[in-house]
């Protein structure tokens, strides 16, 4: 009967919510425990310098791309913007300050893409939250809202044919996203009664891991899992970016030699495409034309 079928779907959603949250929380506990063991003799009142390593190849474009891929590609858009800021904007500002003869190097600025995704109240994620708040909304009404809101935007393309989806022209290329499940994943929360069972569990790890969880969408918690190494505690992409902008960054850009993941094979077109969309060709030029070796005045005088 319809009522039994509906009940099965609710149970399945609750089961999936439990699995996702339990996995994420236990993973975070393992990382925190490792940190405690490695730093057990450190005076907690002494402020230590930090070296953070963000290891992420990043950009994803599969045969079918869902909400998870959008989250990952959003993180990569932010990281690419961070890279542009430090390599191009700050570098050229330093050259002008040193009064070097300089012609500004143009680069591919991805701010319009970030605005499309993050702007309030008419960015993609804001519209997703808006639709998620309407009980009668569906993935189709969400896509219809995107199509009407972003009509004419050069970084957005409506889905073609009968496919329920849309395409985003990212800094690294166009990705077609399947919109099925977007609202469900954005609404997905751990039921209060299930959270209570976890907290009152006789297993200390389960009880501890759920103490500070609020009714957050699992999409946020999932994205937090992506950034867990750099942002323990209250996780968010914005917190990660704030920490990175306050740091002194060094970049190691990895290039994938081929799309088949085969050893000993270098596809020159695949490599060239990555060099272009990552901005590495412009990076080489700006460092070559400026000054890549920067000794202090004292070091220079001694030599």
Automatic annotation (TrEMBL):
GO terms for molecular function: actin binding; ATP binding; microfilament motor activity; protein serine/threonine kinase activity. Residues 237-259 are annotated as: Actin-binding. It comes from the Eukaryota. This is MYO3A protein. Signal peptide: none annotated. One of its GO terms (cellular component) is cell projection. Residues 1-303 form the Myosin motor domain. SUPFAM superfamilies: P-loop containing nucleoside triphosphate hydrolases. One of its GO terms (biological process) is regulation of actin filament length. It is found in: Cell projection; Cytoplasm, Cytoskeleton. Keywords: Actin-binding, ATP-binding, Cell projection, Cytoplasm, Cytoskeleton, Motor protein, Myosin, Nucleotide-binding, Repeat. Belongs to the TRAFAC class myosin-kinesin ATPase superfamily. Myosin family.
């Amino acid at each position: 009967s319809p009522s039994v079928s509906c009940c099965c779907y609710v149970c399945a959603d609750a089961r999936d919510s439990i699995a996702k949250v339990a996995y994420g929380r236990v993973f975070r506990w393992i990382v925190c425990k490792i940190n405690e063991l490695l730093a057990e003799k450190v005076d907690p009142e002494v402020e230590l310098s930090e070296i953070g390593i963000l290891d992420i190849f990043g950009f994803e474009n599969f045969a079918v791309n869902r909400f998870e891929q959008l989250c990952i590609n959003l993180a990569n858009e932010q990281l690419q913007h961070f890279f542009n800021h430090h390599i191009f904007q700050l570098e050229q500002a330093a050259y002008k300050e040193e009064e070097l003869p300089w012609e500004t190097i143009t680069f591919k600025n991805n701010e319009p893409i970030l605005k499309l995704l993050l702007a309030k109240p008419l960015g993609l994620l804001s519209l997703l939250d808006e639709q998620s708040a309407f009980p009668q909304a569906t993935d189709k009404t969400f896509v219809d809202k995107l199509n009407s809101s972003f009509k004419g935007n050069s970084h957005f393309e409506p889905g073609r044919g009968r496919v329920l989806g849309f395409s985003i022209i990212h800094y690294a290329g166009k990705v077609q996203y399947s919109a099925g499940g977007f609202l469900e994943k954005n609404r997905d929360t751990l039921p209060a009664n299930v959270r209570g069972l976890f907290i009152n569990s006789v297993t200390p790890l389960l009880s501890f891991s759920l103490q500070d969880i609020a009714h957050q969408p699992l999409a946020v918690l999932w994205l937090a899992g992506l950034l867990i190494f750099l942002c323990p505690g209250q996780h968010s992409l914005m917190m990660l970016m704030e920490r990175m902008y306050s740091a002194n960054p060094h970049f190691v850009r990895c290039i994938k030699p081929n799309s088949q993941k085969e050893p000993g094979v270098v596809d020159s077109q695949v490599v060239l495409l990555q060099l272009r969309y990552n901005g590495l060709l412009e990076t080489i030029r700006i460092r070559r034309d400026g000054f890549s070796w920067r000794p202090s005045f004292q070091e220079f005088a001694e030599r």
